[in-house]
Amino acid sequence: MPFNLPIALTWLRIAMIPLIVGLFYIPADWISVPVRDMVGAAAFVIAALTDWFDGWLARRWNQTSSFGAFLDPVADKLMVCAALLILLDLNRVDSFIALVIIGREITISALREWMAKIGASGSVAVHRLGKFKTAAQMIAIPCLLYWQPFQGVSVQLVGQVLIVVAAVLTVWSMCYYLRRAWPEIRDKGGRSLS
């Protein structure tokens, strides 16, 4: 397993997940809700920035690896799913929206794994729809974690609108990937891969 700064940043992102989740279980008499929400949102933003930064460093320093390519999306999905579960517990996101986003992540991850196994991973390569979806949810989630007004702007409303946009893009991008994979599914879906 290779180890370099980009991979270390990815591991850091994974290590931050229990810290962010744990923050929301601290008793209310230990930390005020607005402070807890602000720290939680800031921690999520820092973790999300490491996602961009580790990829940029890996490309710039020519330190890309198959392990890094595997670990990076796993870290992202774990982080988003954990944040959505926190938001569900806080009643700040609708359970249907969380189910759509988490269900899509599981479906597309399984689809990509299967397509890689049959040698057709190129047909489900990351598309700009997926990037727009990721951008919308990575802005929506810290807004929903923060929840307080900021400089006269309703951060809560921004988060609620963007999480709906992310859910729509989630379904749209999932349909796109499934449509791209359908010829391989149809041709090889019934054959044994062993």
UniProtKB/TrEMBL annotation:
<keyword id="KW-0808">Transferase</keyword>
<keyword id="KW-0812">Transmembrane</keyword>
<dbReference type="InterPro" id="IPR043130">
    <property type="entry name" value="CDP-OH_PTrfase_TM_dom"/>
</dbReference>
<keyword id="KW-1208">Phospholipid metabolism</keyword>
<feature type="transmembrane region" description="Helical">
    <location>
        <begin position="157"/>
        <end position="178"/>
    </location>
</feature>
<dbReference type="GO" id="GO:0016020">
    <property type="term" value="C:membrane"/>
</dbReference>
<dbReference type="InterPro" id="IPR050324">
    <property type="entry name" value="CDP-alcohol_PTase-I"/>
</dbReference>
<dbReference type="GO" id="GO:0046474">
    <property type="term" value="P:glycerophospholipid biosynthetic process"/>
</dbReference>
<keyword id="KW-0444">Lipid biosynthesis</keyword>
<feature type="transmembrane region" description="Helical">
    <location>
        <begin position="7"/>
        <end position="26"/>
    </location>
</feature>
<protein>
    <recommendedName>
        <fullName>CDP-diacylglycerol--glycerol-3-phosphate 3-phosphatidyltransferase</fullName>
        <ecNumber>2.7.8.5</ecNumber>
    </recommendedName>
</protein>
<dbReference type="InterPro" id="IPR004570">
    <property type="entry name" value="Phosphatidylglycerol_P_synth"/>
</dbReference>
<keyword id="KW-1133">Transmembrane helix</keyword>
<comment type="similarity">
    <text>Belongs to the CDP-alcohol phosphatidyltransferase class-I family.</text>
</comment>
<comment type="pathway">
    <text>Phospholipid metabolism; phosphatidylglycerol biosynthesis; phosphatidylglycerol from CDP-diacylglycerol: step 1/2.</text>
</comment>
<keyword id="KW-0443">Lipid metabolism</keyword>
<keyword id="KW-0594">Phospholipid biosynthesis</keyword>
<keyword id="KW-0472">Membrane</keyword>
<dbReference type="Pfam" id="PF01066">
    <property type="entry name" value="CDP-OH_P_transf"/>
</dbReference>
<dbReference type="InterPro" id="IPR048254">
    <property type="entry name" value="CDP_ALCOHOL_P_TRANSF_CS"/>
</dbReference>
<dbReference type="GO" id="GO:0008444">
    <property type="term" value="F:CDP-diacylglycerol-glycerol-3-phosphate 3-phosphatidyltransferase activity"/>
</dbReference>
<dbReference type="InterPro" id="IPR000462">
    <property type="entry name" value="CDP-OH_P_trans"/>
</dbReference>
